[in-house]
Write a structure and sequence with these properties.
The protein has 667 residues and is α/β, with parallel strands linked by helices. The protein contains 25 helices and 23 strands. The protein binds thiamine diphosphate. The site of thiamine diphosphate has 15 residues, from β4 and β6.
Length: 667
């Protein structure tokens, strides 16, 4: 690799590392380089798919990984092969991962470095780059809560620092003093975008000042500097938990991914950085210092190449995955064995809002590893006062006021789950989940399917209209989530269901969106067991029995349906309250429709793309021969939800339902 006449262009200082330590750094640095060189050959031969090269940047991934303890989590990016090799993952597993084979980490479901592994304490990225920064916060929060004195390291490119996730994650980490090492690899370009089009400050490290965070600039091509500085900083963080921002200066020597080339990079820049190659320079340095001779060097390289070839062979001979529908479907959710729990049948009449509060309180008592997070939920008690008094009972560590950053907090909840804890996140209003949409639908929803990591997270969603709160405090946005495999969606209409289902949601290791209709909070009362109990998901409740028609609904609309029937219409209806939308109790729906021959679905959501459309389609597909009339859907107007109460009344389907029902009966 080296040319004897070449000069050393990196300022190495052995920093009191002994020869063994220096050689260990060298071997660790060589391995990802030699693997990559092999991969580039295989790529040209069409034997592997897309490749994001980390050539020239290896010292950062390798140095950071070696500076951490093996039980400390690292969240790498697409150019950080050195993280994986330095954690000693058997190479054939990496090769199998890149070839979509079973010995990889995702059963062929995700590519390249998009995977995590609890065995090696590595949590790979999702393509969206930024979300893992907040996930690192969650892992670090868990280690802080458990007094583990551990550091969590998370990587991003300088391009990724432009994402809101970066800002949110650093801000949360600083406000909560979380032991996170934010490692920014500043490699000059984000795809074709040079740094002057990416940010407008002198150094990314300067951003630390704005977050109240210590920061350092490190020569990312100098393995000794990376390793020794990060070792020192990590040691200090373990003793004194806090976030630190590290800007590693380096350069991307190849295209964004292999197909895209580097035409847009000035040649002079490429040439200057080629002289600073981290592997070649270190090799020359070790030889100049007498730590390594030519013969040893050849032996080291030969040993690594042999290992690569042997492992490649293992991966190549492995059979391709044979698709199996039920295996795919079974892995979307972590298996959850529902346990029916009921202690005492003594009841008390409470409001819907009290039911939610009781569930949270009793769940906090049962699960010592449960943390609740949300805006203003601590002393203030939350926008709806649901967590009033919780801080006094459970303390500020577990009842956490958050900054206004839905994305980072949902990501933090994911990180807590990765570290084995549970989280409930209160959206102040369900509308605001749009500010955290990406981690919900891409991170929480897909992790179990992708690499077997559950998201033990409940998002509480105070939702719905009828309270004259306008377009951004009234939405019922369940359909944004029922569409996404991997999420569970619960939407109770009564206090009894709310308490039992929220308890189950917290027990369930999968991500659950728990919709709480605000208009029901203080208007609906019911006798509810005082003690803790659970109710199963996927079981609708049949509130009324009748042979004329099946009315299917959930949430506040259930009450509108009941009120309509109570107006002496002389219609005998089965009224089905779905209670959970995902899973959906199709059996109860089909059984009823087969009996009545007519079905009407009422929901508060707008019709197009709402769940009524799917239920209608399911009825057509499964009950067509039993139907005496077309399935009818009734929902809100196809507009945003308006503020003025007379407009809102027109928007909501409450007053249109009766007419639609009567028409259906006449059909
Ligand atoms: C949210 C999002 N937007 C755009 C992309 C497409 N994309 C993938 S990597 C990348 C550049 C990232 O640059 P940087 O963070 O500097 O990392 P580098 O690739 O230079 O290592 C872009 C634009 C993406 N994956 N996700």
């Amino acid at each position: 690799m080296s040319d004897n006449s070449a000069s050393i262009n990196i300022n190495f200082d052995t920093n009191q590392l002994d020869n063994n330590a220096l050689l260990h750094l060298y071997k660790s640095l060589l391995k990802p380089r030699l693997i990559e060189e092999k991969m580039l050959v295989l790529l040209r031969q069409g034997k592997i798919s897309k490749w994001f090269s980390g050539i020239g940047q290896e010292a950062i991934a390798v140095g950071v990984t070696l500076a951490l303890n093996e039980d400390e989590y690292i969240l790498p990016m697409h150019r950080n092969l050195g993280v994986f090799t330095s954690r000693n993952i058997p190479s054939y597993r990496l090769f199998a991962q890149w070839q979509g084979k079973a010995s990889g980490f995702t059963k062929g479901r995700d590519r390249s470095f998009h995977f995590g592994t609890q065995i090696y304490k590595i949590v790979g990225m999702i393509s969206h780059l930024g979300p893992q920064l907040g996930v690192a916060d969650g892992i670090a929060l868990a280690s802080k809560l458990k007094n583990k004195n551990q550091v969590t390291a998370v990587f991003t490119g300088e391009g990724g620092t432009s994402e809101g996730d970066f800002h949110e994650a650093l801000n949360v980490a600083s406000v909560w003093q979380l032991p996170v090492l934010f490692c920014v690899e500043n490699n000059g370009y984000g795809l074709s975008t040079p740094i002057n089009e990416q940010y407008n400050c002198q150094h990314i490290a300067d951003k630390g000042i704005g977050y109240g965070m210590e920061s350092h600039i490190i020569d990312g091509n100098n393995i000794i500097e990376v390793y020794t500085k990060v070792t020192e900083i990590a040691t200090s963080i373990r003793n004194n938990p806090r976030p630190v921002l590290l800007e590693f200066i380096t350069f991307r020597m190849r295209g964004h991914e292999e197909a895209s080339g580097t035409k847009y990079v000035p040649q002079a820049l490429m040439d200057a950085w080629a002289l600073k190659d981290p592997v070649v320079n270190f090799e020359l340095f070790l030889k100049a210092q007498g730590v390594l001779n030519e013969q040893e060097d050849s032996q080291i390289k030969e040993a690594i190449l042999n290992e690569i070839n042997e492992n490649l062979n293992i991966a190549f001979v492995e059979e391709d995955i044979v698709p199996n529908e039920s295996i795919e479907l079974n892995d979307v959710y972590q298996e959850f064995k529902y346990q029916s729990i009921a202690y005492d049948t003594e009841t008390k009449e409470i409001r819907f809002i009290d039911a939610i509060s009781e569930s949270l309180k009793q769940s906090m008592e049962r699960h010592q590893d449960l943390v609740i997070m949300g805006q203003d939920i601590a002393e203030y008690g939350g926008a709806f006062k649901i967590t009033e008094g919780f801080v006094e009972q459970f303390g500020r560590e577990r009842i956490r006021n958050t900054p206004i950053c839905e994305s980072a907090i949902i990501e933090t909840a994911m990180g807590l789950s990765i570290a084995g804890m549970k989280a409930v996140v209160e959206m102040q209003f369900a509308d605001f989940v749009s500010s955290g949409f990406n981690p919900v639908v891409n991170y929480l929803a897909k992790s179990h399917y992708r690499w077997g990591q559950n998201a033990n997270v409940v998002l509480r969603m105070p939702c719905g209209g009828g309270v004259a709160a306008g377009p951004f405090h009234s939405q019922t946005n369940e359909a944004w989530f029922t569409k996404t495999p991997g999420l569970k969606v619960v939407y109770p209409a009564f206090p009894y269901d709310a308490k039992g289902l929220l308890n189950t949601a917290i027990n369930d290791p999968n991500p659950v969106l728990f919709f709480e209709h605000k208009a029901l909070y203080r208007s609906v009362r019911q006798e509810v067991p005082i003690d803790y109990y659970t109710l199963p998901f996927g079981k609708a409740s049949l509130l009324r029995y009748g042979n004329d028609v099946t009315i299917i609904s959930y949430g506040a609309a259930v009450h509108w349906a009941l009120e309509t029937l109570d107006r002496n219409l002389d219609i005998k209806a089965d009224v089905i309250d779905l209670r959970t939308l995902q899973p959906l109790d199709t059996e109860t729906i089909f059984t009823s429709v087969k009996k009545t021959g007519k079905a009407i679905i009422l929901h508060e959501d707008t019709l197009f793309g709402g769940i009524a459309s799917d239920i209608s389609a399911l009825i057509m597909e499964h009950c067509f021969e039993y139907l005496d009339a077309p399935v009818k859907r009734v929902g809100s107007l196809e507009t945003p939800i308006p503020f003025a109460s007379q407009l809102e009344e027109q928007y909501l389907p409450k007053n249109r339902f009766e007419k639609a029902l009567i028409n259906l009966m006449k059909y």
